Known about the structure:
The protein has helices at residues 2-21, 28-47, 67-70, 72-82, 96-105, 109-113, 115-122, 124-140, 145-159, 196-206, 210-214; strands at 56-58, 92-94, 166-168, 188-191. The chain is mainly alpha-helical and 215 residues long. The two termini are 19 Å apart.
Amino acid sequence: xxxxxxxxxxxxxxxxxxxxxxxxxxxxxxxxxxxxxxxxxxxxxxxxxxxxxxxxxxxxxxxxxxxxxxxxxxxxxxxxxxxxxxxxxxxxxxxxxxxxxxxxxxxxxxxxxxxxxxxxxxxxxxxxxxxxxxxxxxxxxxxxxxxxxxxxxxxxxxxxxxxxxxxxxxxxxxxxxxxxxxxxxxxxxxxxxxxxxxxxxxxxxxxxxxxxxxx
Length: 215
């Protein structure tokens, strides 16, 4: 999908450059490009990976083989605890399935998909503005009811009858593999029951900061 969109952007630039050279003689190409771009977007929507599985998983359920659902960091922590039998903090992971539902529910996929293209074509200044807009949209987005319900239930199971403050941090797909992403994503400390969803959105938004996208 990224390659298709990059090719589309290259074509747009060629159309623009041609019209600049030819004093607008081929301006009808803009409409032709628009129609083709809309058709490509429709095709790209069907190519998006479909995620399935639970929205939330307890650490006790995780092993390294579930990195594609829980992210490398939490999957490895589950492996340490559940396979090697070593001590590990209690916790739960909000899965990539929940993330995909959040993004689809708030119609954010297309906007985030274009961030790398903006950096390549227009440079860091344009990327900074685009990232701010995406992050604001995520922070203002609605967490789907079933996702919110599962997060609250997992927290209740973790703390039982107590009001314990937890840390919420990233466990992104690919993190701590080919790249570390160290310091790129946000961590929220001292999160209570009423702040869970806000903290979740803050962590998601951090994945689309200018620094994280550039990295």
